[in-house]
């Protein structure tokens, strides 16, 4: 086979084979290169006769090699294209925060009986957090012990009516003044109270408050809605009990316990041996609150309730230390990957 034919029939499956061919023909001792050595020894006439042919052979060898190189590179690109789903490094999936998981679950349960979600500002005024909610001017909840006031001027703390909301009832007052009954809303959000941080208390936490206002809303409606919630959240065997309590914005007011879902009501350290754990505050919206929000209390009545998301999360996932929720310890958060 002539050298020309050999060059024309070169085939390479890989870059290594290609390199072998380059060396074989165009390397220092390559077959085409050696022609040039011989060429130097030829007579003038022979040179004139063969020069063009040798050059043409060298060029066609080089371009054939280049062609094969391009083809191999193209093939590599195609292969990579076909394999784009391959991850060079495994991608780490994040997980939802337990408080978000529980918040979503609570919203989901109440959405099934017609509640929609409303949100409002965390930095609020006195009127929406206390004033319109029937707090007497000297009510202790307004005191600096509980409430973080926002300084209007640096170093001047009081008098100011701008504060961090201590409950999301403030969103309820906003909804009541801007919407007409029937109103059926859930107000989730972060709230702030001036408390020393410990395993059992924090200066901020999360609440979900509910409000239902319509004609003829009764305490029985409230109890039924809360019983439904407790069974959906903690299981069909869950029982509830309502204990009389006091909130300025509801009358009558109550606190609700559920049968301890850890010991099933037998008594354990979590429920301090009582078989019951408190999970929320509730009551019938005080007529004064309705009136201060522009709702006719003779025509309408309503119920409200408020629960702490951390508390429910503790019951569900047995988180013993409240601080874990805000420390962002990856070992804690990873435990909720499967939830
Ligand atoms: N706002 C109350 C709190 O933060 C909870 C509550 C809401 C109680 C609605 C009764 C009715 O403690």
Q: How would you describe this structure to a colleague?
A:
This protein is of the alpha+beta class. It folds into two domains: 79 residues; 239 residues, 2-Layer Sandwich (BirA Bifunctional Protein, domain 2). Helices cover 40% and strands 19% of the residues. The strands form two sheets. A seven-stranded mixed sheet has the order 1-4-5-9-8-7-6, sandwiched between helices. Strands 2-3 form a two-stranded antiparallel sheet. Strand 6 and strand 7 form a beta hairpin. The chain is elongated and about 125 Å long. The two termini are 72 Å apart. Bound molecules: phenylalanine.
Quick structural overview:
The chain has helices at residues 3-8, 15-26, 31-40, 44-82, 98-111, 126-129, 169-178, 219-234, 287-292, 309-317, 324-327, 330-333, and strands spanning 116-117, 123-125, 162-164, 183-192, 204-214, 240-247, 250-259, 276-285, 301-308. It has 339 residues and is of the alpha+beta class. Residues 167, 169, 209, 247, 250, 281-283, 304-306 line the site of phenylalanine (PHE).
């Amino acid at each position: 086979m002539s050298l020309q034919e050999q060059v024309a029939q070169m085939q390479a499956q890989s870059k290594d084979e290609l390199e072998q061919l380059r060396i074989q023909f165009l390397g220092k001792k390559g077959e085409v290169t050696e022609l040039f050595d011989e060429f130097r020894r030829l007579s003038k006439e022979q040179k004139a006769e063969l020069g063009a042919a040798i050059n043409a052979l060298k060029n066609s060898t080089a371009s054939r090699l280049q062609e094969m190189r391009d083809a191999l590179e193209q093939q590599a690109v195609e292969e990579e294209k076909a394999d784009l789903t391959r991850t060079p490094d495994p991608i780490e999936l994040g997980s939802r925060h337990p408080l978000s998981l529980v918040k979503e679950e609570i919203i989901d349960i109440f959405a099934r009986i017609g509640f929609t979600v409303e949100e409002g500002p965390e930095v609020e005024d006195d009127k929406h957090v206390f004033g319109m909610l029937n707090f007497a001017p000297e009510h202790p909840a307004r005191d600096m012990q509980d409430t973080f006031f926002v300084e209007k001027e640096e170093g001047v703390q009081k008098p100011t009516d701008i504060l961090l909301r201590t409950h999301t009832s403030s969103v309820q007052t906003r909804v009541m003044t801007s919407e007409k009954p029937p109103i059926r809303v859930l107000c989730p959000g972060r709230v702030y109270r001036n408390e020393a941080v410990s395993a059992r208390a924090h200066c901020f936490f999360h609440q979900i408050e509910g409000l239902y206002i319509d004609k003829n809303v009764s305490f029985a409606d409230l109890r039924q809605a809360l019983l439904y919630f407790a069974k959906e959240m903690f299981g069909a065997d869950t029982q509830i009990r309502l204990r009389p309590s006091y909130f300025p914005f509801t009358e009558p007011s109550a606190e609700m316990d559920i049968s301890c879902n850890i010991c099933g009501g037998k008594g354990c350290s979590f429920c301090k041996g009582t078989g019951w754990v408190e999970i929320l505050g509730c009551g019938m919206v005080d007529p004064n609150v309705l009136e201060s929000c522009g709702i006719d209390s003779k025509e309408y009545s309503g119920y409200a309730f408020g629960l702490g998301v951390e508390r429910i999360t503790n019951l569900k996932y047995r988180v013993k230390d409240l601080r874990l929720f805000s420390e962002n310890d990856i070992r804690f958060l990873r435990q909720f990957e499967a939830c």
